[in-house]
Amino acid sequence: MNWKTACKIVAPAAACAGAFAFLVAPGRATRAQKAPFLYRNYAHRGLHTEDGTVPENSLPAFRAAAEAGYAVEMDVHLTADDQLVVFHDDTLERMCGVPGVIDDFTLAELRALHLGDTDCVIPTFAEALEALYPGIKFGIGPAIENGFYYDVDSPVPITEADLETIEKKMIELSRNKEQLIRTEVSKADALKNFTEKGDPYKVELIRDLEDGTISFYTNGAFTDLCRGPHLPNTGLIKAIKLTSVAGAYWRGNEKNKMLTRIYGISFPKKSMLDEYLAMMEEAKKRDHRKLGKELELFCFSQRVGQGLPLWLPKGAALRDRLEQFLRGVQKEYGYQQVITPHIGNKELYVTSGHYAKYGKDSFQPIHTPIEGEEYLLKPMNCPHHCEIYRSKPRSYKELPVRLAEFGTVYRYEQSGELHGLTRVRGFTQDDAHMFVRPDQLLEEFEKVIDIVLYIFKTLKFDNYTAQISLRDPNNKEKYIGSDENWEKAESAIIQAAKEKGLNTVIEYGEAAFYGPKLDFMVRDAIGRKWQLGTIQVDYNLPERFDLTYKGADDKMHRPIMIHRAPFGSMERFVAVLLEHTGGKFPLWLSPDQVVVLPISEKFNDYAEKVSAYLNKYDIRSQVDDRNEKIGRKIRDNELKRIPYLLIVGEKEEAEGLVSVRAQGEGDKGQMTLEAFRDYMTDLVSHEIDANKMEQKN
């Protein structure tokens, strides 16, 4: 899509005689700053001179109008080869001395014509807009999981209010069915092209590319740097939605200039766009930030600091229950729980390699009274676990050693990238590291896969893909370790995934700096993709920390390290779970499983008795004793996603009963306290046990 066309149109003015007319308002200068021109029909033909030295409809005329601060109305015609050109008349004779209608000429034929006695030619629409907005620059505009974005450096602010206008224009232009033509370009020619154009962002990108790998795409008069592929023509796009405008630092570096990032998505059918918009509306309802506030799970405070979540009592209870669930699974699989500090000596992270990766752009070091002594907030748990492993001599008989920790780590994320619980500066990993012999690697890796799949089944994440994340073979400098170790690690992951029959995709360049990964990509209830759970094979950290064990041959050997985090992080997992369930958690996980609703104040004491009885049996219950009508209490608590409502009145108190109402199901009848207790206990047990997988010994 021609963003140079789309992004700069302020407002359509009129449509006339086979052409489009647009009003663009640069607003660059005051009247006192206007150039000494004689003005005639400037709104239609640009700012030009009577003597013809600056002819109407020309680029100099449009530039002069922009510099003088005038609005410019442009008539845009479609040529015979589907190109947009700017020209006031439908015919050519008055300005070019050539008979015929513009629409019957190709762009090349029009380029051969001059405006009056000058060398000025009929400009394309893109050229005219660039003349009106000199200085606009284009950064990166890639396709992403859901749509696309383009980063622009525009002297004219682009806001959310402009998106609808841009959308309409993009649809209008797509109907022109402009071809997207690919051209292979040498690095020298590419640099020359964008240097002459004065586009520093494209020049910077080209400098990082290898000669022989550079391609341009052209549609109409607009040419961009792009590797492709693209649709053959813009006519295949039938529906477009620009979704948001945001700020983005050039190349993700906050030291660089902030650009305007425009997000959008397109479809070949309007019905598909309608479905997507319905999904987006549902996503707004499920936004974990909104639900977290409504359900009183977590909050943020500027005084505490950006990206540092505060877990409220109900959120802490939810998180603790998730942790206890995983602790139970880990215990069955022979994990040992450890605890490590939130900080570590700089040398620890220099040894691990994390300092080179996180040190420069992370939090500032913590200095002690001893000169030269530095500590850092912990960016990863694995270096600490390596030190625990090497705290004593190890024998081959002890392996595998499985060390687990819910360890909080800290990474400095730019403020513009922070987003609720999904992108924070302090987060707790459900971390574990296995130290194994080579003959144990495959089996141990498969056991971790079993744990991940058990969690997914229990929490109803049924739609997932296993992504095998390998290193970039063309950029090995990003990684530590030998080629041999990487090849062994990558082979092990590929084999394990195959043995478990996983639906896999391979992504190059997505490995951790110390080893390849198996990442689990989950689709939630409304079809969005999230990365949850990761398993990594690492030959490098055992080498860097000189980890050993004595083998059966009485010689020292090097263990292999497996990193794993089934949840990924507690913060991100809770956020995804919130949006996946819409706040309607499984019964075993709900912070409040039951609320007791007395129909009047007379029955508050009985309600408290019911709640105390249930809490004694670990059925999480509270009483809603507000002085409200029972209908209001039911509505309010259903909005809070409480799974079960127990209504109590005169009959219930007299006979030791509760009237049961289930979320989304309605009335379930009356039960004794004992019967309801057993009912809830059975439901919770079924939710957990029904998904357990057979464990390999």
Number of domains: 4
Regions with pLDDT < 50 over 5+ consecutive residues? Answer: 1-19, 25-43
Q: What is the average of the pLDDT values?
A: 82
Helix content range: 25-40%
Characterise the protein shown here.
The chain is α+β, with helices and mostly antiparallel strands. It has four domains: 3-132, Alpha-Beta Barrel (TIM Barrel), CATH 3.20.20; 137-286, Threonyl-tRNA Synthetase, Chain A, domain 2; 329-340 and 377-581, BirA Bifunctional Protein, domain 2 (2-Layer Sandwich); 594-689, Anticodon-binding domain (Rossmann fold). The chain is 33% helix and 24% strand. The protein is built from 23 helices and 32 strands. The strands form eight sheets. The protein has an eight-stranded mixed beta sheet with strand order 15-19-20-27-24-23-21-22, with helices on both faces. A hairpin with a 5-residue loop joins strand 3 and strand 4. Helix 8 (187-197) runs antiparallel to helix 9 (200-207). It is globular.
Produce the secondary structure layout.
Blueprint (H helix, E strand, L loop, with lengths): L2 H4 L4 E6 L2 E6 L17 H4 L13 H10 L3 E7 L5 E3 L6 H4 L10 H5 L13 H8 L4 E2 L4 E2 L2 E7 L9 H12 L6 E4 L2 H11 L2 H8 L7 E5 L2 E4 L13 E11 L8 E10 L2 H17 L1 H7 L3 E2 L10 E2 L1 H20 L3 E2 L5 E3 H7 L1 H6 L6 E2 L6 E4 L4 H8 L11 E10 L15 E11 L4 H18 L4 E8 L12 H17 L4 E5 L8 E7 L5 E10 L1 H5 L4 E2 L5 E2 L2 E6 L4 H12 L12 E5 L5 H13 L4 E3 L6 H10 L4 E5 L1 H6 L1 E6 L3 E7 H17 L8
Parallel strand pairs: 15-19, 21-22, 28-29, 28-30
Antiparallel strand pairs: 1-2, 2-3, 3-4, 5-7, 6-7, 7-12, 8-9, 9-10, 11-12, 13-14, 16-18, 17-18, 19-20, 20-27, 21-23, 23-24, 24-27, 25-26, 30-31, 31-32
Helix pairs in contact: 3-6, 8-9, 11-19, 16-17
